[in-house]
Amino acid sequence: MRRYKAPFNGSRYVLNKATGEIHDLDSETPQCQIDEMNPFNVINCTSYEDAALRAAFLSVNGANGCYYCNPSKDNG
What we know:
The chain is an alpha+beta fold. Helix content is about 15%, strand content about 20%. The protein has 1 helix and 4 strands; from the N terminus they run βββαβ. It has a 4-stranded mixed beta sheet with strand order 3-1-2-4, with helices on one face. The longest helix is centred in the last third of the chain and has 11 residues, at about 50-60. The chain starts with 12 loop residues before the first strand and ends in an 11-residue tail after the last strand.
């Protein structure tokens, strides 16, 4: 479910820069724990590729799709 309030602002893809995990809010599940993310670590992205590129520069772990909402991009 897309979120239109800050810090998400209606974006489909959200990068948690602390973990490198990329969430697809159109496929969000309760296991994603989006509400638990520190707002400081939220990066809104226009596409998965945009999020992966940002993760390469901002996250120590690199990019990884969320197991629950983005399983086709999950690296384990």
